[in-house]
Amino acid sequence: MGRSYRIAPSILSANFARLGDEVAAVVAAGADMIHFDVMDNHYVPNLTIGPLVCEAIRPLTQAVIDVHLMVEPVDRIVPDFAKAGANIISFHPEASAHVDRTIGLIRDSGCKAGLVFNPATPLNWLDHVLDKLDLVLIMSVNPGFGGQSFIPGALPKLADVRRRIDAMHAETGRAVLLQVDGGVKVDNIAAIARAGADTFVAGSAIFGSKDYAATIASMRAALKSAG
After folding, report:
1. Which CATH superfamily is domain 6-226 in?
2. Predicted local confidence at residue 145, as pLDDT
3. DSSP class of 69
4. What are the CA-CA distances from residue 140 to residues 73, 79, 113, 150, 162 (Å)?
5. 3-state secondary structure of 117
6. Contacts (Cβ under 8 Å, ≥6 apart) of 224
7. β-sheet bridge partners, residue 64
């Protein structure tokens, strides 16, 4: 198959007292993207980081900064993250009054746009907006906290989205990343890839390990076995 894979460490699990060093270390260890979890204690029951932190880490790396907005309302904060240096901004359809308009706002702000599906969120939104997206993120945990276990129901959902993306690609040539987030580890990443994911968010599995480079290398070796 020869699909190219991307590893996106989630800084939610990093040591925040040394965040700049952590970002540099994980990029040096082979990360492709930095996943940036934004929670507002409203849409999800936790409060994390905002545009100020994104702006602070932007000069430290050339890697793609992939911002996952778990906030409601979403439109107000999109331009702030675009200005702070985000490359991709993803949001949940439940957090937007007008999903199509929010996608347009993200793209007009100069970023790539992603749509995020919680474990219980149906995929119907893709019937209407897949052709405008650059990324689809399937949550394999309920969002809000790091360190949760992978929900197996994400696998058929990934396979469904992969079929849709491949069909669109065959028709239009448009490429869309299929990202998965939640409970991704060395021992399950190959099965997740076989279901269709090409971009893998991993927080505690990487930042909780003693050797970031060894962990990322083990993930890549497992992905190679997935094809």
Report:
1. Aldolase class I (3.20.20.70)
2. 80
3. E
4. 23, 28, 20, 5, 15
5. strand
6. none
7. 33
pLDDT value at position 227? 75
Tokens 């060093």, located at residue = 21
pLDDT > 70 fraction of the chain, expressed in percent and rounded: 99
Reported confidence tier of residue 163, pLDDT bands at 50, 70, 90 = very high
Indicate which residues carry an active-site annotation: 37, 181
Hey, is 17 helix, strand or coil? helix
Whose tokens are 């990443």? That residue is 189
Q: What percent of the chain has pLDDT over 90?
A: 95
Tell which residue, 2, 59, 4, has the closest CA to residue 34. 59
Beta bridge partners of 88: 66, 112
Q: Decide if 205 contacts 215 (C-beta within 8 A).
A: yes
Token pair 């052709």: residue: 131
Compute the residue count for the chain.
227
Helix-strand-coil percent breakdown of the chain, rounded to 5?
45, 20, 35
